[in-house]
Amino acid sequence: MSHIKLLKNHTLKATPQRLCILDTLQECGHATLEDVQKIISKKFPTLSLSTIYRNLNEMLQKDIVSEVKIANKKDYFELKKDKHVHLVCQNCGKIEDFEIATDDISKQIEAQTGDKVLNDTLYFDVICKDCLSAK
Amino acid sequence: MSHIKLLKNHTLKATPQRLCILDTLQECGHATLEDVQKIISKKFPTLSLSTIYRNLNEMLQKDIVSEVKIANKKDYFELKKDKHVHLVCQNCGKIEDFEIATDDISKQIEAQTGDKVLNDTLYFDVICKDCLSAK
DNA sequence: TATTATTTGCAAAAAATTAGCAATTATGCT
DNA sequence: AGCATAATTGCTAATTTTTTGCAAATAATA
């Protein structure tokens, strides 16, 4: 879906500022606020910091964007996408997405706890293929 | 291990302030900085906020304490413990720990990506048993 | 119990985030 | 296309959160 449509579907006006933020997240995959700020300051130098804050917060609330929170790292933002797992390379820092079925593990939890599992968020610390082969 | 020993093993003096912070985390299981601050202000009213910050940071670095970062929630702290999964009740907010083997899923990732998996952090959104039965 | 290097508490600085408001702009309607 | 209007922006200032510097206090050691 185009970013313009995405915004309109959530009753947000399709301003150039918002489109720029969405484009940036799309390009980066995962970006910290600092990343977003730096990249945008080149593409769109007049876009103010408070606009970035305001819009990321709005988009989080409207579920257009989600937070990726990794221990010992700054928070990242990403465009909302299908359920996936994050692979965080401990060597180069890169974050890859990976799709994986987690039903088995959810069922196991339900069976053993009596809780109902609604959703999950998984992170794996890895050494990525590229870093492995570079050694 | 006693908290005193724990600190000494990491070349940290066993001050009453530090012991109070560790006790608080132990009692709470998972506590935000705000939680820690509130609870401590009762137990130990003269313990200053900067001491809390300084010590949590030190203990994170020394791996005595770890961060629990959940999307759309404040960061939590917990005493370092054996590998476990967090079950976050979407109704009451409670965080439970759960031990589960994740080897299968790690192997699957390794097979499909060529990455080497070192460790993992998993969160599950749940409705906990208590909230389920209260409905 | 005396010595010393650490640690604490306070106050002040720095960094991060949010709020208020006039000027601007995207959208929907003629 | 041009207008009206409500939403949005960019600015500056206010808050909130986190870190720092330093004198006084304290835990660990001999």
Structure description:
The structure is a homodimer of 135-residue chains. By secondary structure, chain A is α+β, with helices and mostly antiparallel strands. Chain A has 2 domains: 77 residues, Orthogonal Bundle (Arc Repressor Mutant, subunit A); 49 residues, Ferric-uptake regulator, C-terminal dimerisarion domain (Dna Ligase, domain 1, 2-Layer Sandwich). Helix content of chain A is 44%, strand content 23%. In chain A, a hairpin with a 5-residue loop joins strand 4 and strand 5. In chain A, helix 2 crosses helix 3. The N and C termini of chain A lie far apart (40 Å). Chains A and B meet through strand 2, strand 4, helix 5 and strand 6 of A and strand 2, strand 4, helix 5 and strand 6 of B. Strand 6 of chain A pairs antiparallel with strand 6 of chain B, so a sheet runs across the interface. Chain B binds a DNA duplex (30 and 30 nucleotides) through helix 4.
What descriptive keywords fit this protein?
three-stranded antiparallel β-sheet, 44% helix, homodimer, alpha+beta, 6 helices, Arc Repressor Mutant, subunit A, 23% strand, 2 domains, DNA-binding, Dna Ligase, domain 1, 6 strands, 135 residues, three-stranded mixed β-sheet
Write the SSE topology:
The structure is a homodimer of 135-residue chains.
Chain A (H helix, E strand, L loop, with lengths): L2 H7 L6 H13 L2 E2 H11 L5 H13 L3 E4 L7 E4 L5 E5 L5 E4 L4 H11 L2 E12 L1 H5 L2
Parallel strand pairs in A: 4-6
Antiparallel strand pairs in A: 1-3, 2-3, 4-5
Chain B binds a DNA duplex (30 and 30 nucleotides) through α4.
